[in-house]
Amino acid sequence: MSTIAPVTTPDVAAPSVTVRALVPGGLIVLLFLACGVLALLAPNRDDGRGISRITIEHADGLYALIPGEVLDCVRQDDRTAVCTMDVLGKPLRVATTYDEYPSRDATCVASYAGQARSCVPNYSSDTSLSLGAVLADGLGLTRAEFDTVAASAMPWWRFDNGMPIVVPFMLFVLPLAAALVVGFSGPAPAAKATLLMVGVAVGWLALLAFSKGLFSGVFADWLQPAAVIGGCTVLAWQWALTRPGWRTGWARGVVAYVAGTVPCVVALAFMLVGGGYVD
Questions:
Q1: Is 188 found in the same domain as 144?
Q2: How far apart are CA 235 and CA 154, in angstroms?
Q3: What domain range is 235 assigned to?
Q4: What mean pLDDT do residues 114-127 have?
């Protein structure tokens, strides 16, 4: 009498990598790009323009910001920079002159439509940052004219307060995108856990070094433990994504959103402080 041998199912090897396991590395790559954008628009960007931005104040307590990238600036010498632009069809000219090194003092002169205007240098507490200029007399503009200037002076890639639109992209869009990818991908583990974790660790350190190298601002002491927290979070997240995931996609997505937000916030803090966006 013959017997029927039990049918055995061969073990299925885990794939080397999965889509969700690549999410932390992809997030770091996008943070690299965001770092480059913030560096181009940073107030302390050392491109020789000499004036980081112009602030026009109005008697009603309002102010209009003109960022440095929309100014036409030239260096007359090592100490003097002259920036011009048209305001309501009339020429605005602002010149700043630094005192001899190592003094941080500077003078500022301005004219609008051929008439001299009040100009005050705007210093930052960080002496490595570029100088701003404040036009305290409002250029003699009426309220309607001032509102027109305030609405048109800021380019589309910045909010009215001067902050680049890439900031909410880093805080909300990137973590949400990571959550969607992880949530809709399968829960399968990845075999190359060690390789992925090493790659993410190197990428995180390179991102922080890259942002610090691009920016000349002084980094606050609290950024050091923040960098450690961000690194530990992204490493733990990377390890978890190489393990079998939750069966439900929404649970995987929620965890990914929280885990992805932490490195985004830390990286953004490095860029905003180092670039002089926050004082």
A1: no
A2: 39
A3: 20-42+164-274
A4: 79
CB environment 136-170: b (16+ within 10 A), e (fewer)? bbbbebeeeebeebbeebbeeebeeebebebbebb
What confidence tens digit (pLDDT) does each residue in 147-164 have?
A: 999 888 888 899 888 889
* Same-domain status, 132 and 232: no
**Strand duo 131-135 + 51-57: pairing:** parallel
Could you list the beta-strand ranges (E) of 30-122.
Answer: 51-57, 63-67, 72-75, 80-87, 90-98, 106-112, 115-117, 120-122
pTM over 0.90: no
d(CA 246, CA 250): 9
pLDDT digits (tens, 9 = 90+) for 1-49: 455 544 444 444 556 678 889 999 999 999 999 988 988 888 766 544 5
Residue with the bigger pLDDT between 234 and 223: it is: 234
Q: Which amino acid makes up residue 63? A: Y
pLDDT, averaged across the chain: 84
Residues 188 and 55 in one domain: no
In a domain, 118, yes or no: yes
Span between the terminal Cα atoms of the chain, in Å? 88
Looking at residue 30, what is its pLDDT?
Answer: 95
What type of residue sits at position 59?
Answer: A
DSSP structure string for 128-182: TSPEEEEETTGGG--HHHHHHHHHHHS-TTB-TTS-BTHHHIIIIIHHHHHHHHH
